[in-house]
Design goal:
single chain, alpha/beta, Rossmann fold, globular
Length: 281
């Protein structure tokens, strides 16, 4: 599978918000490097001990930094091993995510997965005061995110809860974006999306990676769209269990080099990935 990221691709607003929001403000002082050492452990980069190495890692555009292992059971005190369960995504991936989301000033946005709140801050800087709702399942992560955002004088509403349920009290939304991947688009997201609104989320695929899907709301609790990028994200907690892709609406015998030709239809009757050859004329 090939991917040719286009970066800002002429989206000057996106470049502006990246220049406005300091990434280092949101990254914890202790993070793990995502590539294992020869002994199988992931190195911890501690800002207090190695400030230059930490800052260099923070601004390395193609690398995510791990902020939580095993749902917080592993303390950030040294090299560790375990399952990555939270991170600050690489700048390159966030650019891809937000470019396809294309939020506008004044848009009402729902973000699934607050994490460090870096992406939350970028969204709020773009759309304006009292426009962003962000959901984080981990209470400790959510509390830190609120503190970081408040220190920047940003005012998104950060909710502690299950992101798969969305947040209906503040809906509907012009834009919905997920920073954790799913195997099936949760119905609540589609129900809370305005007609003509845009949903961008990483979806598990049969190709050994996630595919970033961009759906447009149809006004009937569904949406249609296409895949726009090959990415890798951590799974939402409620969808970690593996499931056959055939159960999730994927046809068999797909060409991994033609993923960009696929279309997706999701709604009350489930989701279906469609090959161009079977699209209605």
């Amino acid at each position: 599978m090939t991917l040719n990221p286009r970066g800002f691709a002429g989206a000057s607003w996106l470049r502006d918000v990246f220049l406005t929001v300091p990434r280092e403000h949101f990254v914890p002082d202790q993070v793990w490097w995502p590539t294992a050492r020869e002994d199988g452990l992931y190195s911890l980069i501690d800002r207090t001990e190695r400030p230059r190495a930490w800052l260099k890692a923070v601004y390395r555009t193609g690398t995510a930094l791990i902020t939580q292992i095993d749902d917080g059971q592993v303390p950030p005190t040294g090299p560790a091993v375990g399952a990555f369960t939270s991170s600050v995504s690489s700048s390159g991936v966030i650019i891809e995510l937000l470019r396809h989301l294309a939020p506008r000033p004044g848009d009402h946005v729902l973000e699934i997965g607050t994490g460090t709140a870096y992406t939350t801050a970028l969204l709020t800087t773009r759309t304006g005061p009292q426009t962003v709702v962000s959901i984080e399942i981990d209470p400790r992560i959510a509390e830190r995110a609120r503190d970081r955002l408040t220190a920047m004088q940003l005012d998104p509403l950060v909710i502690t809860g299950d992101g798969e349920q969305g947040y209906a009290p503040a809906g509907p939304y012009d834009r919905i974006v997920a920073t954790a991947s799913v195997r099936r688009i949760p119905p609540a997201w589609l129900e809370q999306l305005r007609p003509g609104g845009v949903l961008v989320a990483p979806l598990d695929s049969p190709f050994g990676c996630d595919l970033l899907v961009r759906l447009t709301g149809d006004g009937q609790d569904g949406g249609r769209g296409k895949f726009v990028a090959a990415v890798e994200f951590m799974r939402v907690r409620g969808q970690r269990e593996r499931r056959p892709h055939a159960e999730l609406g994927w046809p068999g015998e797909l060409d991994p080099e033609r993923w960009q030709d696929l279309r997706i239809d999701a709604g009350p009757r489930g989701q279906r990935v469609i090959e161009p050859s079977v699209l209605p004329q």
